[in-house]
Amino acid sequence: MGAPETQSYERLQSSEIGEQPLSFDTIEPMHSSWVVQKFGGTSLGSFAPKIVEDIVIELDLLLLKIEWWSFVPRPVDLQRRMELQIGKIFPRWIEADHILAAQREVDCPSLQESLIESIQHECRVVMSILGAARLLSEMSPACVGRVVSAGEKLSCHHMVALLRQQGHKAEVVDASNLGISLRDQDFHNGLRDTVAKKLAYKVNHVDGIPVLTGYFGFSATSTALELVGRGYTDLCASLVASGLSAINLQIWKEVDGVFSADPRHIPDARLLHSLSIAELRDLTFLGSEVVHSTAVDVAESQNLTIYVRNVVSPKAQGTLITPKPPNPKARLTAITTRSSIAVLTFHCRPRDSTCAIYSYISEALQRWELSADIMSTNKTSISLAVSLPDDFSHSRTESFELRIRLVIEDLTPHFVGIALATKAAIISVVCRPAGIRDCVMATMLRTLNQKTMRVYMTMNGVSDISAGCVIEEKHVREAAEAIHYELFQVPGIVTPPSGMD
């Protein structure tokens, strides 16, 4: 089967736009041809002019979703770092970095002057926030959110200046305070749709190209970091694409697309030209970092089409991700790994209530914000592969290891014994249809046995299109390379189609 056609960079024709005022309650996209492009901080820091000249300005109805770039810690590490260096030279690094970039990349004197003024203003805001936090000896999640928001606005101002330099109308869209109450709303039940509508409402009021901050806040005191954690930029992009009913969501990275394995560790990994959302969901859940899992959830529920493309080679095909499988034939998709796993085995009394046992475990895991990725049971024991969830609260100070110990302490009175194995990893293969999963699992276990690698537990019922197991973390790279060779290089169960499309 040949590779699917990708979106060409020809100008898109918009539909007729009426004169009716936009209503937030009954919002409908003003355009039928929106394209949402998401750029990460690393891409912007290295390729901002190339992005504007070779990727952005070829499209008319375009929304840019921007992530923070600078030589500074990522938001996940921000709180602890700011507590150490609060109000000191930290903000000055950011200011100097962005002013140098403005002087290097913006040639128009008036645009450069305006950009530098915006940079200095945002950095003064950061300094005032850090100064207040130092005075109060407190760094709240809302303060962290305000600082992250300021950083992403710096990136947006820079992109707007580059676009205007090319003669295009562009405007920064600040999503740091959407004015949404969190009261009686769950992010996965109602609030997500509200955020999507609010983002679309803001974007539709822009005359020109909207350049949207990847960070979004619900209100002045509630942040995306609290509910979503790391990955909020991918989520923001998928939400605004959903709210606008966009043609597609383009996620631009420094890699060619999604591969059959991590190409940094497995040189023979193949580029996947096409995927289904279900396959991408399993890949992200099981360890792939191409697209964040919360963004995949939105894409799946809203039937979004996603492209993963390379900013270095914008004409390359990349990976097309569609709601339905693009290739109905049986195939192996990819192998993925997830490290930092702990395996807990609970030994039960013969007459213990199953409902009570699950209730004890569930309450303890929720109390300490841990996620059970895989569960295996028999008559006398329950084994769990446990990790930190993607949306864990970054305001908590307990380490993963300490949380595991606290869970064991809480649950010890309810069980005969609890065994712990740390430094484990999940290794899995996404494949379809479900009928080949058992053959894939048999090949994996045979390969691991030949390598004399210990298997703690296997995946049963986690997904219809994936097979996997939990092994020692120190063996994960060697195991992935061996399994990838057996499944993808050696003709056997399923020979992957040419080009992996």
Automatic annotation (TrEMBL):
PROSITE patterns: ASPARTOKINASE (PS00324). InterPro entries: AceGlu_kinase-like_sf (IPR036393), ACT-like_dom_sf (IPR045865), Asp/Glu/Uridylate_kinase (IPR001048), Asp_kin_monofn (IPR005260), Aspartate_kinase_CS (IPR018042). One of its GO terms (cellular component) is cytosol. SUPFAM superfamilies: ACT-like, Carbamate kinase-like. Residues 145-310 form the Aspartate/glutamate/uridylate kinase domain. It comes from the Eukaryota. GO terms for molecular function: aspartate kinase activity. One of its GO terms (biological process) is homoserine biosynthetic process. CDD domains: ACT_AK-like_2 (cd04892). Belongs to the aspartokinase family. This is Aspartate/glutamate/uridylate kinase domain-containing protein. It comes from Penicillium angulare.
